[in-house]
Specification:
Elements (H helix, E strand, L loop, with lengths): L7 H45 L10 H12 L4
């Protein structure tokens, strides 16, 4: 029993497909940690603000809420 030789065109297509799949997998591996961190931040903000603070969810993403909190934390005493 002998192996049939693979044509050069099919070999190049297969190797380029593997390279593309490898690039996509490496991109996923690199991006998964920042995506999970940002997701955890958003979920944590929503849970903390809605459940612990008894405020509406829409206020979490309002910039005036965060400006008010910044002013509370970094306000000059007087």
């Amino acid at each position: 029993m002998t192996a049939t030789p693979r044509s050069n065109d099919q070999g190049n297509r297969t190797s380029s497909g593997r390279i593309v799949a490898r690039v996509i997998w490496m991109s996923i591996k690199i991006l998964i940690i920042p995506v999970l961190c940002i997701s955890a931040l958003i979920i944590g903000l929503a849970v903390g603000y809605v459940i612990l603070g008894d405020k509406p969810l829409a206020d979490v993403f309002d910039s005036s809420t965060w400006k008010h909190m910044y002013d509370l934390v970094f306000a000059e005493g007087g």
